[in-house]
Automatic annotation (TrEMBL):
The chain crosses the membrane at residues 40-61. It comes from the Eukaryota. This is Uncharacterized protein. GO terms for cellular component: endomembrane system; side of membrane. The lineage of its organism: Eukaryota, Viridiplantae, Streptophyta, Embryophyta, Tracheophyta. It comes from Coffea arabica. It is a lipid-anchor; GPI-anchor. It is found in: Endomembrane system; Membrane. The keyword Amino-acid biosynthesis does not apply.
């Protein structure tokens, strides 16, 4: 039982690492795009990403 939980935690950690590495490789098109306006909701993406990862982790664990 404990080994299964450890395996699920490893899978969740690998998923987080993969998501972080994929988010760093946006490509050239993102570098050429203009920056969003300060009034835009672009900063909401980061908390949404963490909430999605937390939901995936709970899905794997339970």
């Amino acid at each position: 039982m404990e080994a299964a939980m450890k395996m699920k935690m490893l899978v969740a950690a690998m998923l987080v690492i993969m998501m972080m590495s994929l988010s760093g490789m946006k490509g050239v098109a993102a570098a050429d795009a203009p920056a969003p306006a300060p009034a835009s909701d672009a900063t909401i993406f980061v908390p949404t990403l963490f909430a999605s990862i937390a939901a995936l982790a709970f899905g794997f664990l339970f």
